[in-house]
Amino acid sequence: MKTSARNSFTGKVTAIRSGNILAEVEVATPTGLKVVSVITHDSLASLGISEGSLVTATVKAPWVILVKEDMKLKTSARNKYCGKIVKVNEGQISAEVIVELPDGTKICSLVTDESVKALDMKVGDDICALFKAFSVILNVE
């Protein structure tokens, strides 16, 4: 499987919670990260996803929100991972910011150059990467 999404988390489905239209799917990576996705029941069925299925959860970099001073922020994002900035590649309009989590997983976020300046983002800074469960795309082989 090839994709243009910069962030990818491969793991096993550990839980599925069903609603009337949508299903919430929890994926656990080998390092213990839990990624939550919300998909339709039709997608769940057509992909053949069940507990124990091996899937890859992908998230495009522009959908990742970066937050400093996490303790003061309440958010609806189900997926929240805190780590350190290991790379800031500034352009003329946008910047690529790479966050490394304690387990070595790297998450890429694309933000505006103005956001990098406003949050004073630098390599070594503590930061949290967040994305909504609706932003997680599930893939099966």
Provide the CATH superfamily of the largest domain.
RNA polymerase II/Efflux pump adaptor protein, barrel-sandwich hybrid domain
DSSP summary: helix tally: 2
Provide the spatial order of strands within the biggest beta sheet: 3-2-1-4-10
Number of strands: 10
- The 3D shape can be described as elongated
CATH architecture of the largest domain: Beta Barrel
Which stretches are poorly predicted, pLDDT < 50 over at least 5 residues? none
Between the first and last Cα atoms, what is the distance in angstroms?
A: 7 Å
SSE string, helices as H and strands as E: EEEHEEEEEHEE
Our count of domains comes out at 2
**What radius of gyration results from the CA coordinates?**
16 Å
CATH topology name of the largest domain: OB fold (Dihydrolipoamide Acetyltransferase, E2P)
The first-level CATH class of the largest domain is given as: Mainly Beta
Classification by helices and strands: mainly beta
